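As practice, study what follows.
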Amino acid sequence: MPVVRLHRTVLLVTAGGGRDDPGWHAPEPMTGGGSVVSVVAGVDVGGTNIAVGLVDEDHGVLAEQQVRTPTDGPEAVVAAITDALDDLGGDPEAVGIGAPGPVNHGVLQSAPNLAGFTSPVALADLVAGATGLPVVLGNDASLGVVGEWVAGAARGYRFVLGIWAGTGVGGGLVLDGVPYHGASGGAGEFGHLVIREGGALCGCGRRGCVEAYAGRASLEHAVAIEVEAGRPTRLFEIMQEEGKDRLTAGVWKKALRAQDPMATRLIDDAVEALGIGLGTATNLLDLDCVVIGGGLAEKLGQELADAILAAARPWMLVPDADLRVVVAELGDHAGIVGAATEARALIRQGADPKSGE
C-alpha cells in the first residue's frame, strides 16, 4: 500500500470561487490564520502518477497520497482514484480532478499520455458514481495554474500562462483575473502549439508540436533514436547510478551538469521549442506572468525559466515587455490545490455534497 503523508502546508490566500463565475478574481492574501470549515479532495492525474490530497479552505494540504497511474484503461484509473480517496479518509465534500487532455462538461475528450484512453471518457461521472460525491473535471495543467494563481508563484497577477512540462507539455490560462477554459474546455493546450511544420512526431499524432520536443516521453524517444544511431551519452549510465528505471528530471539534471553532449543538445532544443511557443502566446495574449512547472523546472529552477524567456524574446513583438517568467512554487501540490479549488467552487454553486451529481 502506498504511504499516506499527513501534514499541514500553510499557504497564503483564502479560497476562491468557481471557474464559471465571472467575478472569480485572485483572492487577497490572508492576514491571519483561517479556520477549517470543510475539506475537499484534489486529484492530479498524470501519465506516470496520480496524486490525491485533502485540502482545507485556506488551501492547506492536510494529507496526500501518490500512486502509479494504471496502464489498463479508464476503469483502472477510476479504481485507483477511488482507492486513494478511501485510504485518505477525511470525508471530503467534493472531488476536483485534473486530467491530461482537453475536457468538456466532465468528459475527457482525448488523453494521448494515458494508456487505454482511446475515446472520450466521462471521467467525472465515473468517479462520482464510484464515490457518491460531486465531482468536477478539468485539464490537469489548467488546474495547476489555478493552484499557482490562488496560492503560489502567480499570486497577484491577472494575465497568467502556466506551462507544465512532464510526460507531455500542458498549459493553462488566467485572463484578466479569471481562469479561462475556452468555448469547450480546451483552452491552454500550450504543448500542442505547432512551431515547426512537418517537425517531430507528437504523441497526439501531429507533427511539430511543442510537446514533440519538450515532453519527457518525446525526449526519451529522441534519446533512444540517437543511441540506436550510435551517438554516445551518459544518460543511461547516470540512470543506473541513480537506481532509476527511466530518465527522470534528476537524471537529466546530472547529465547537464556533466555537460553530456546529447542531453545538452536535446534540452537546448526543448528550451527553444518552449521559447517559440511562449513568444507566440505572449504576442496573442499580452501576458504579465508565466509559471513553469513540472519535474525539470523543479530540478533546474529559475535557471530554466530564464533560459525559456531568453529563447522567447526573439519571437516577441515587444521583446522588452515586462514579462515575469518564474518556476512554480507549489510543486506537486499545484494540481491538487487547483483541483480542490474547483471542487470547493462546485459546492458553493449549490451541488449536494453527497449526491455525486
Remarks:
- The chain has two domains: 5-145+332-348, 158-327.
- The radius of gyration is 20 Å.
- The chain has eleven helices and 13 strands.
- The mean pLDDT is 87.
